[in-house]
Amino acid sequence: MRGEVWRRSANHSAMTNSRHNVIIVGGGIVGLAVALEITRRFPRLLPLVLEKEDGVGRHQSGHNSGVIHSGVYYKPGSLKARLCVDGARAMIEFCREHDLPHHVCGKVIVATRPEEFPRLEELRSRGEANGLTGLRLIEPEQLRQIEPHASGLRALLVPSTAVTDYSAVCGRYADLIQAQGGTILSSTAVTGLRRLPGEVVVETIGPVFSTSYLINCAGLFSDRISRMAGDDPEVMIAPFRGEYYDLIPERASLVRALIYPVPDSRFPFLGVHFTRRVSGSVDAGPNAVLALRREGYRRTDFNLKDLASWLAFPGFWRMAAKHWRSGLDEVHQSFFKPAFVRALQRLVPEVGEQDLVPGGSGVRAQALRRDGTLVDDFQFVQSERMLHVLNVPSPAATASLLIGRAIVEMASENLGVAS
Ligand SMILES: Cc1cc2nc3c(=O)[nH]c(=O)nc-3n(C[C@H](O)[C@H](O)[C@H](O)COP(=O)(O)OP(=O)(O)OC[C@H]3O[C@@H](n4cnc5c(N)ncnc54)[C@H](O)[C@@H]3O)c2cc1C
Fold it and tell me: What spacing in Å lies between the alpha carbon of 394 and ligand 1's midpoint?
């Protein structure tokens, strides 16, 4: 079966107290991409992936918009820009090669107020500086030819944007890793890490492992895994829940492909938008609400430990002081459907409350510094015998193959020693 992974109970005795060359914590798209790259570059290392859930891609990697981003948003020269542009090409190629669902549908970023024109121009310049071709500023008549129900004063057409199903991508990464001799052990939460001379001891809810090198790809828990090892990540993971509505099938024709607003440059989030998925269904969202639990997919989800660690982190208060107004707007949008719908009507005026039914949600892992600023770029930090992946928000699913390469490149000196 595609993406099937070892269950802890079935292989408990075989794996107990075993020694490994490299262990990866987290079976999301990033951890899997890292393991896949290790099997390609260092085939003798046979990586072991430890995942706390009963399968791969159960959190961010399986709860996202499924967009293969082109790279138009990101600061030229940043890791996000470099790894997204090449990563998008690599992802489309991977989907083609492995016969995974994907569709290069293009998208429009729509300015609905004249004040947004300079930002739209800036996005085009950024995109071009990042090497994208075919970007075009279009007027309302051309916008209507592409998206007949969208309304805007001007738009940026991004023809290379595509969609896929990242759960299916994770499943295929897992198959390839295992076919190359790597192991993915599910239902195996890492509970403790100890550095001893020449090794790292990895405690889990089941077996204890020893490894020469550890790569932390624990997503929403990557800061905790780093602290577990005695390192100071200097950031805290802020969980931002993104909630979706689905367009009812009778109204899905309102959207042909992807319709986005001009994003607010102060935030790493793109604003609620419309996405036609590879399945053909259309969803609207996600918003960005601070969750009261790291894996808090519902508004009522709450965890005292998560909340207490938040309140003790100075960056939280600084962020709250700076962004409380927009934070309240997002909460308002979360609790009051009419507010959510109003944001969508700026893009597609015909959409009504009755056209939208609650969809799923996802929780983004966004690193926050002590000074209250959100880390914008991808962030990977090395320490003795370890590498911590501390910030890989969107477009990390798009860029996953290239992120895997970059991380293995960073760690290669240590991995090379182990091989
Ligand atoms: C709502 C939303 C929409 C998005 N849309 C897009 C998009 O359209 N395009 C795009 O490119 N990106 C998008 N992203 C971003 C993308 O999904 C993420 O950047 C990417 O999935 C991050 O992958 P990851 O492997 O780091 O994290 P995850 O998928 O969260 O994986 C981390 C894994 O670590 C495991 N773990 C945690 N702690 C432990 C432990 N102690 N022991 C063992 N395992 C542990 C978790 O169970 C989890 O499976 C979106 C994200 C969200 C939330």
Answer: 9
